[in-house]
Amino acid sequence: MNVKYWKSIKEWIWVFSSFVFVSCFLFQPFKIPSGSMIPTLLVGDFLLVNKFCYGYSEDSFRIGTFTFPLPKISGRIFATKLPQRGEVVVFRNERDNNMNYVKRIIGLPGDKIELIDGIVYINDNPSEIKEAGEYSVIDQGKYFIFKKYIEKLPNGYEHVILKRDEFGKSMLDNVGPFFVPEGHYFMMGDNRDNSKDSRVLEEVGFIPLERIMGRAECLFFSSTCSLFEILKWPFSLRLERFFTAIK
Fold first, then answer.
1. What total of structural domains would you count in the chain?
2. Phi and psi dihedrals of 86, rounded to 5?
3. Per mean pLDDT, which range of 14-23, 73-82, 106-115 is the poorest?
4. Alpha carbon distances (Å) from 42 to 17, 45, 63
5. So which residues are the catalytic ones?
6. Residue 102 half-sphere exposure, CB side, CA atoms within 13 Å?
7. Tell me, what's the pLDDT at 6?
8. Whole-number mean pLDDT of the chain?
9. pLDDT band at 116, cuts 50/70/90?
10. For every residue of the chain, which 3-state class applies, written as one string?
């Protein structure tokens, strides 16, 4: 084989191996395909997921929908902390063709979660809701104006949520109670009236700790168009979202 070509092949092998190592053990990029986490995450956002903060499970070694065939891991290894309420995480949903989901942790193992008129109750304690104006959304080609609120969870964690309908009027505004099993978590999207999450038991339900791939840390790129539509980039880049922390 030509020395020049062999050198080029080795360089590509090195690049690919480095990407796989970083994605499996350190930080993995993800693209947001849906609007279930608006306004925290927008369609076309690219985020970095911290793969080592909770230790590693089998799903840590997953890129896209492919999981590397490594020796079976029971539970999580090298874990120094557990996922906390309010954190945004990426996980594998076994009930939806093993697709990757990104949602916010609302319920911890052992919690009782209930929604009454759209208000989240955690162990019978209601979250605090404060109005924060309006938020315009273009979702699936349609323009909407949603109400924006600051939700304060019982542990003091605050984040923004959207409501398309009035509190108590949406299909998932009165559900539960849900009793989160040990070793599982209850997830919800910030776009409350447009999120398939743990409130829908038959399609998402409680998420085992082992299925959590990592914590969403920051955005590094955001665009309203496809990566391949290079000519549209100057008009589609959301520069204000580049390199911002996810809260």
1. 1
2. 100, -15
3. 14-23
4. 30, 6, 21
5. 36, 103
6. 28
7. 62
8. 86
9. very high
10. CCHHHHHHHHHHHHHHHHHHHHHHHCEEEEECCCCCCCCCCCCCEEEEEECCCCCECHHHHEECCEECCCCCCCCCECCCCCCCCCCEEEEEECCCCCEEEEEEEEECCCCEEEEECCEEEECCEECEEEEEEEEEEEECCEEEEEEEEEEECCCCCEEEEEECCCCCCCCCCCEEEEECCCCEEEEECCEHHHCCCCCCCCCCCCEEHHHEEEEEEEEEEEECCCCCCHHHHHHHECHHHCCEECC
Domain span holding position 217: 3-245
Record the pTM: 0.85
Write the single-letter amino acid at 178. Answer: F
What residues are paired with 105 via a beta bridge?
187
In sign, the C-alpha dihedral spanning 149, 156, 127, 88 is: positive
Average pLDDT over residues 175-182: 96
Q: Summarize pLDDT for 120-158 with one digit per residue, the tens.
A: 999 999 999 999 999 987 766 778 889 999 999 988 999
Cβ count near 215 (within 10 Å): 21
CATH no. for residue 75? 2.10.109.10
Using the structure block, give the residue that is written with the tokens 């990407």.
19
Per-residue pLDDT of 217-234, as tens digits, reads 999 999 888 777 778 777
Q: CB-based contacts of 104: which residues, under 8 Å, 6+ apart? A: 37, 40, 86, 87, 88, 89, 159, 187, 188, 189, 190
| 149 vs 137: CA distance, rounded Å | 15
Q: How many residues does the chain have?
A: 247
